[in-house]
Amino acid sequence: MFVLITYDINTESDGGARRLRKIAKTCQNHGQRVQNSVFECVITPAELVLLKNKIFAIMDKEKDSIRFYLLGKNTTDKVEHYGVALAYEHDGPIIL
What we know:
CATH topology of the domain at 2-35 and 45-74: Alpha-Beta Plaits
Distance between the termini: 22 Å
Strand order of the largest sheet: 2-3-1-4
Largest sheet: 4 strands, antiparallel
Mean pLDDT: 86
């Protein structure tokens, strides 16, 4: 399933910068950063549950905001991008 994750972390509060880094690293382990606080992930529903639990354990629900856009399968061909950015194939091999 194709999931778009966006977040807004309050970095003016205590621990905000730390939460921001931890959430970004958690998302980066499951997907590709496409903008500063936006990640595209191709994951299974079970992986999404685990990812949400990790993020919810980090975030401050009183100060931070996270959105998950569940776009389903076969959505990557409907994404249009213009301007500078590194593109990658969601279905292609990932080399680490």
